[in-house]
């Protein structure tokens, strides 16, 4: 596999609206400027997605929360999920607010390193604040479920460690994918809902930011997995995925260990019964999965706990999602050959088919 690491600061797009130098990086070396995009406004997609997971480690009070602010051109999708991930009766609830034709009016920041993302209407207030070494999620969601209010106030430590950054084109003209995954952010704070307080513990709980800007083709299927854990006193995270454009220059498969990125080759995510990219019904999502890398540095089994399945069909806009949470076990090998043993790491892997 060809893997081009970009280290010099540069503009993401040229005057023709195409990526100048496709590849991967350890930070936002590419400068994204919305005005340089040559595709129509309704095709531009900008999103900030946070996932925060609490693992009680040996107990059964495991939970997670996910927050999305997005401007997807002809539609904005703002959502919050609360998930109970204990082996005893796992469950989840997701609530979504749609806003039509934002097309840049949400003023999403052009970098993840500065600026705030926010959405507000009469039902949902969601704010992401970025300070020097910290990120802050604030949320108030009226009638999140059965008329009850959900509130969140979560702080994430972001001291400037390395991250996974990728810039890849699609084969279609003016279409591109620019994405950053920031793993291993220590999480603290609370969510309150239905008379219960969910507390994140910075000594063992982590968050990931999925920050993306780009122009997508209309019909896409992708696989994406991510997770974080404290292993023998070290911060460990991983990001794996494919289906995001032409990856001949680079993929987004990495291990993060004590703030340093270790690059992996191609990844294969094997879901039992999954024989077709666009077949979303045949895979046996709750059976045990197998994940391997072509360089033999990432070999895992994944035991599902909960399938967060969601399907929307508005004819022109279709989304069929299976975000599966579970526990991963196996081995990961760092660049220097050090083997990290993973045991029952709480994380997620998803298969998603979207037309939008």
UniProtKB/TrEMBL annotation:
Pfam family for this entry, one: DUF2804
Q: Which domain of life is it from?
A: Bacteria
UniProt-recorded name of the protein: DUF2804 domain-containing protein
List the source organism.
Butyrivibrio fibrisolvens
- Source taxonomy lineage? Bacteria, Bacillati, Bacillota, Clostridia, Lachnospirales
């Amino acid at each position: 596999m060809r893997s081009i690491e970009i280290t010099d600061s540069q503009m993401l797009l040229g005057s023709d609206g195409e990526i100048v130098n496709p590849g991967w990086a350890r930070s936002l070396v590419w400068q994204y400027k919305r005005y340089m995009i040559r595709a129509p406004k309704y095709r531009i997609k900008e999103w900030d997605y946070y996932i925060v997971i609490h693992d009680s480690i040996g107990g059964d009070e495991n939970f997670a929360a996910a927050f999305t602010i997005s401007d997807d051109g002809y539609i904005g999708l703002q959502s919050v999920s609360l998930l109970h991930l204990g082996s005893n009766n796992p469950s989840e609830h997701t609530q979504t607010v749609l806003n039509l034709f934002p097309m840049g009016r949400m003023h999403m920041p052009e970098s993840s390193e500065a600026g705030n993302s926010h959405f507000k209407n009469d039902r949902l207030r969601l704010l992401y604040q970025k300070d020097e070494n910290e990120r802050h999620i604030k949320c108030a969601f009226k009638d999140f479920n059965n008329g009850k209010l959900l509130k969140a106030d979560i702080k994430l430590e972001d001291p400037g460690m390395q991250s996974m950054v990728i810039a890849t084109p699609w084969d279609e003209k003016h279409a591109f994918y620019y994405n950053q995954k920031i793993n291993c952010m220590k999480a603290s704070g609370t969510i309150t809902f239905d008379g219960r307080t969910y507390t994140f513990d910075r000594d063992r709980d982590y968050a990931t930011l999925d920050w993306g800007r780009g122009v997508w083709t209309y019909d896409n299927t992708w696989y994406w997995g991510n997770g974080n854990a404290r292993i023998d006193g070290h911060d460990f995270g991983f990001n794996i995925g494919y289906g995001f454009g032409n990856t001949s220059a680079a993929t987004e498969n990495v291990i993060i260990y004590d703030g340093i990125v270790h690059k992996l080759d191609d990844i294969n995510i094997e879901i039992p019964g999954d024989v077709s990219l666009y077949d979303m019904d045949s895979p046996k999502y709750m059976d045990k999965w197998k994940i391997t890398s072509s360089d033999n540095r990432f070999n895992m089994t994944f035991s599902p706990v909960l399938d967060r399945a969601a399907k929307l069909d508005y004819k022109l806009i279709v989304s069929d999602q299976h975000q599966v949470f579970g526990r991963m076990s196996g081995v990961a090998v760092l660049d220097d050959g050090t083997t990290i043993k993973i045991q029952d790491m709480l994380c997620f892997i998803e298969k998603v088919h979207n037309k939008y």
